[in-house]
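User: Hello! My lab partner asked me to get a predicted holo structure for this protein. The small molecule is zinc ion, SMILES included with the sequence. Please write out the structure tokens.
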Amino acid sequence: MTSTIIKNGTVVTADLTYAADVRIENGIITQIGQNLAGDEVLDATGCYVMPGGIDPHTHLEMPFMGTYSSDDFESGTRAALSGGTTTVIDFCLPSPNQSLLEALTMWDNKTGKAACDYSFHMAITWWGEQVFNEMAEVVDRGITSFKHFMAYKGALMVDDDEMFSSFSRCADLGALPLVHAENGDVVAAMTQKLLAEGKTGPEAHAFSRPPEVEGEATNRAIMIADMAGVPLYVVHVSCEQAHEAIRRARQKGMRVWGEPLIQHLVLDESEYANPDWDYAARRVMSPPFRDKAHQASLWAGLQAGSLSCVATDHCAFTTAQKRNGIGNFAKIPNGTGGLEDRLSVLWTHGVNTGRLTMNEFVAATSTNIAKILNMYPKKGAVLVGADADLVVWDPARSKTISAKTQQSAIDYNVFEGIAVKGLPRFVLTRGRLSVVEDEMRHAPGHGQFIAREPKNPVNRALSQWKAITAPRAVERTGIPATGV
Ligand SMILES: NC(=O)NCCC(=O)O
Ligand SMILES: [Zn+2]
Ligand SMILES: [Zn+2]
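Assistant: Hello! Below are the structure tokens for the protein in complex with zinc ion.
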């Protein structure tokens, strides 16, 4: 068996920083120590050896708003690897009344050219006995997280009744519900009002979904999850109102995790004021970019631990696709890219500024989500026995982000012109060297589906606590006879 040694680097994990060499055999880390020797040597002098990034929120080749997102599992996972992300978690979206299992087959069929490992969240887009039953089979197949859209009325949105039913089913199965938290009824009404007033440009997309619609929905989802007795993961937290709801819940001991996006951390609402329609439309996503005060709240949440994971919600549409919404902002496909730039932008704006430690960076980009989704320590760890999904991170390498040099299939980059310092020297996916600085050596088809077990420790603890504290009927004697 051939071995690869990553030599002379500093291992950085979510809780430790230390000098060590790392031996890889058969895709697995088999030894961590001093002065290791092997067949192939990767020199990590001056670099940090970290768990590869895990992006818990991507939409590759997703049918949405009358089109498909333009990065598929080939270009999307190539983009991921180029930036140091070695696992993506995508969303399987059944159509209304479609079987979850049938949708899963469709999504499985998209992944043949994945170059890094992947898993899925299953979306609950409608409710009925069939969905209730199939959720158990979905969990058996290793998909243990279920996404609920509280927005996109008339398309993906579910109501409170459906959400409570699904959350309760998640509790029974030991699965994790996720929410896109925006009040879809209010967004729909505000959208109609804005259009009627003639406000049709991309900036009106942001007016139609103010922070309050996100704060309200986040709070509602948290309360519904608590009543269902299940933990909750809130995707793309963009504002103080939503963060405040999560922070308050966590202070009360509720099991809630919040996920800010790298886009919301560094880009703000002024982007929508750009006089160039294309420029503004390319930045249309939900929730929209917010003002600087909201950004500060998100950074504080990462520092304080009230927000847990930085994702991208990578859902990339070309300029031509965005132009579907000329004259009506509600038809601009919602979504932005970010998969290949997440780590370098977070490192530059987080670690290089002192907002985050290197260990917090690893936690927010890899380890925390591996634990939440029950993939740890197979993923998210530099430990003997873990998958050799590793990024050898060179803090001295720099570049200016440009669509001209990106892997993503679209024709622009929302981070265009941003200078980053801190980039991969090497990226390995299950031991396979896939990136050497700017050179891609990835192998389409190398990626494997990661099946996850239900009932992670937090689910189990919460179920136990809810069982102990559940309301109980009062045992009574001497009950008067009825009708007397
Ligand atoms: N976020 C966004 O605008 N598009 C992708 C779908 C979603 O996550 O809401
Ligand atoms: Zn969403
Ligand atoms: Zn999304």
